[in-house]
Design goal:
Layout: E1 12-14, H1 21-49, H2 53-59, H3 65-78, H4 87-105, E2 107-112, E3 120-124, H5 133-137, H6 149-186
Antiparallel strand pairs: 1-2, 2-3
Amino acid sequence: MTKNRPVFNSALEPLAASPPDDIARSMGRIVARHAYMEWVLGQVLYGLLEISIKQGRAVVGRPQPRQYAAAVQGLYAFHKLPAKVSFDKLAEAIERADDARDALLGSVLMRDSSRKSSPLYLVRGSWSRGADLEATSQDAWPETPRADAAYMGRLRDEVEGAVARAEKLRDTTDRLLRKLHEQRRKDPRLNRRSR
């Protein structure tokens, strides 16, 4: 026996007005914190590459989370920095933060027009990243979480977890690079510019 898939709920319609203030604030905070996380991750990569922020923005695009973690791990090895960082956990945290941000940026707030006082639902948009093509082609309705404080809190926690890991990586990297640069300054054998 085949399992019935949920059918498109025609009573759901997009929220044409601005979202309620509490939802809008939550969404804005999550997106802003994700942008900050990306900035911190960029600082780490540019520091390890020993290039300026301006150069980094011009030539380094943001890699996928697993590629980013592998690049940073490789640069740690190149500089012979002791890596006490779990790069797999870093990549997983960034992926979860990206998913949380994408859930907001690639979705539409909708409400049930058949109910007088309908909660808001977050429905994946037509062109959202990673949309389930099979479900879309069969007019199946993807998961529609309620856009309430609990759901926004879960998304915020995912992003904050990645922010904490990114900041810890930045602090560790900055400390190790300062130590390395001091060693290079004091020991002429380590000064690569004199070769």
